[in-house]
Design goal:
The protein is of the alpha/beta class and 289 residues long. It is 26% helix and 21% strand. The chain has a six-stranded mixed β-sheet with strand order 4-3-2-1-10-11. Helix 2 links the parallel strand 2 and strand 3. Helix 1 packs parallel to helix 2 and helix 2 packs across helix 4. The longest helix has 22 residues.
């Protein structure tokens, strides 16, 4: 590909491998030699995941995008589900969940030329204490070793990434506000990032990126972007308990375009999304004998 005037970062997270509502690769062999047949929701997710990889590959070949990095936003696996007593788990064996995640990520990596992969640690409930589960997976995927907040070599809780002079702050967690106020939490975080940078406590960030809440939000101010990326897990019992309608996830990924030089536009940052609808669901038809 000819040199492009911009870098595109592929941003994806919350695969929750190990959940019966999360992403799981087809025909993946467990450590005991057995395998798990995908339920209809997982089959839908797996098809969407491969379709997204195909779209990225086609767009790269047509020079519509210029992937120069992948950022994984955490919650790669679902963990042991202690709160749910593993009633929604494919397997609670962490090594099997991590292996499934590796297979999923290799599908995405094969869709584009070799590019740096940055891994963010998710919640300890899912990615285990101090991100232990994701750290090994990150190393196996050849993720970049970087310095950041918290412990880790190939993954940290926070990544501040300078891309052609634009600084993007990545972290997994954000408050789970819902309904009509979904943008409030990320908007507040953007404000606090401005205050922290002004006080010299944190690097200046032109964009902040979060995950965790499983829906897409993009807030744009005059001098800052705030982005929440989609997930790859369908609605769980925990989500339905809070609201059947309000707690519906957004499936997909985001692409952050960073222009290398000053452009005609007033902003060097742009956001694109690749979003999939939820699996088809129809009411049960009442029949009376």
């Amino acid at each position: 590909m000819a040199s492009q005037p911009y870098d595109d970062l592929i941003v994806v997270g919350d695969t929750q491998c190990g959940s019966i509502f999360g992403l799981w690769p087809e025909r993946y062999e467990l450590s005991d030699g057995g395998s798990y047949g995908l339920n209809p929701g997982q089959k839908y997710l797996w098809d969407c995941w491969n379709h997204a990889a195909d779209r990225l590959e086609a767009a790269t070949k047509k020079e519509l995008i210029n992937p120069t990095g992948v950022v994984f936003m955490g919650d790669a696996i679902d963990g042991r589900q202690r709160a749910q007593e593993a009633t929604e788990a494919v397997t609670t064996r962490i090594s099997d969940q991590a292996g499934a995640f590796l297979k999923c990520m290799k599908v995405l990596q094969s869709a584009m030329p070799p590019v740096p992969l940055y891994m963010i640690q998710g919640t300890e409930y899912h990615d285990q204490k101090a991100g232990d589960a994701i750290e090994g997976a990150a190393a196996a995927l050849g993720a970049v070793e970087y310095g950041g907040v918290g412990s880790g070599r190939h993954s940290h809780e926070v990544l501040d990434l300078d891309v052609s002079g634009s600084v993007i702050n990545f972290a997994h967690h954000i408050s789970a506000l819902t309904g009509f106020y979904r943008a409030t939490a990320i908007d507040k975080e953007a404000l606090w990032s401005t205050i922290a940078a002004k006080d010299g406590k944190m690097p200046r960030a032109d964009m902040i990126v979060r995950a965790h809440v499983h829906y897409f939000i993009h807030v744009e101010h005059e001098s800052k972007h705030a982005l929440v990326v989609p997930s790859w897990q369908l609605q769980t019992r925990y989500m339905r308990k809070h609201s059947v309608y309000r707690m519906l996830p957004t499936l997909g990924l985001a692409i952050i375009r960073v222009w290398k030089e000053a452009t005609f536009w007033d902003d060097k940052l742009q956001v694109m999304k690749m979003v999939y609808g939820l699996p088809p669901y129809k009411p049960h038809i009442h029949k009376h004998a």
